[in-house]
UniProtKB/TrEMBL annotation:
Catalytic function, reaction form: [protein]-peptidylproline (omega=180) = [protein]-peptidylproline (omega=0)
Enzyme class: isomerase
Protein name stated in the entry: Peptidyl-prolyl cis-trans isomerase
Record-linked Gene3D superfamilies: 3.10.50.40
Molecular function, one GO term: isomerase activity
The enzyme's E.C. designation: 5.2.1.8
UniProt family annotation: Belongs to the FKBP-type PPIase family.
UniProt keyword list: Isomerase, Rotamase
Length: 288
């Protein structure tokens, strides 16, 4: 994987305020072939570490052709949510934000090896071997071990109870002698003050799931390295999540009791018998 370097060659210039689409002006001549990252303006937020989930807005221009590349600021587009420094995206995104602060604007000159390689990206108008200039605005940083904090409202007595365990899976206790509900039950344990989750967004969550029948844990994000990104409201997750999370505020912790009809129905899953009622505690960390 290429590493960014300082450049003595003429660099593109950037105008416009952080938080709005940048204007990229290219210098005369062709790019040097170096992978260059420079700071246009340094933010004052948290520093992005390798493995953190970052939310980034971007503007881009094809240096080889001089044409604009589609931007997250364009109508119908949205910021990019990804884990920094682990190779999820091209190096121009993957490496450039690590070590920089939320609120920063970064200028990135990405030769093919740091952008779209020898194959290019026809959908974005990037040809084979083109150099791309990106301007990245770092909007948010969420470490993998992040949890929701705030005033806790205990769930009703007839629902499972939740004991927080810091940066670890919560303990979920099933009420004794209470039959499993046949409808989706939702209880907001911590009310966040962020934007509401919309259908079609990608949500970043910590979650733990147990069986209502015996309280046995069958899954937890803590067993997968921490926070996970999932698309909501589109059928990518079980229907109980789609129904229970759309409309909730970012920063909330939500208890869901999901009947089989909104879960896995009569299909057994790993650690989940057929026709199981499922209980989840979900921290909503971000939504884009």
């Amino acid at each position: 994987m290429p590493s960014p370097v300082a450049s003595a060659s003429p660099m593109p210039t950037v105008s416009g305020d952080v938080g709005s689409k940048a204007v990229i002006t290219l210098p005369p001549g062709q790019p040097s072939g170096q992978f260059v990252v420079s700071t246009v303006s340094e933010g004052e937020g948290a520093t992005v570490n390798r493995g953190d989930w970052v939310t980034v807005n971007y503007t881009a221009k094809n240096w080889t052709t001089g044409k604009d590349v589609p931007s997250s600021y364009d109508a119908g587009s949205k910021p990019q949510l990804y884990q920094a420094g682990i190779g999820q995206l091209v190096p121009a995104f993957d490496q450039s934000v690590v070590g920089h602060k939320v609120g920063s604007r970064m200028l990135v000159v990405a030769p093919p090896a740091a952008a779209f390689g020898d194959q290019g990206n026809t959908q974005l108008g990037v040809g084979k071997g083109d150099t791309v200039v990106f301007v990245l605005d770092i909007l948010e940083d969420v470490p993998q071990d992040s949890v929701v904090t705030g005033t806790v409202t205990p769930p009703p007595a007839n629902l499972p109870q939740v004991k927080e365990n810091g940066k670890a899976a919560p303990t979920i206790t099933i009420p004794q002698g209470v039959p499993a509900p046949t409808d989706l039950q939702t209880s907001v344990l911590i009310k966040g003050d962020g934007k509401p989750v919309k259908s079609g967004q990608t949500v970043l969550v910590q979650y733990t799931g147990v069986l209502y029948s015996n309280g046995q844990q069958f899954d937890s994000s803590w067993n997968h390295g921490g926070a996970q990104a999932l698309q909501i409201g589109t059928g990518s997750v079980i229907e109980g999540w789609d129904k229970g999370l759309v409309g909730q505020s970012v920063g909330s912790q939500v208890l869901l009791v999901v009947p089989p009809a909104l879960g896995y129905k009569d299909q057994a899953q790993n650690g989940i018998p057929a026709n199981s009622t499922l209980v989840f505690v979900i921290d909503i960390l971000e939504a884009v």
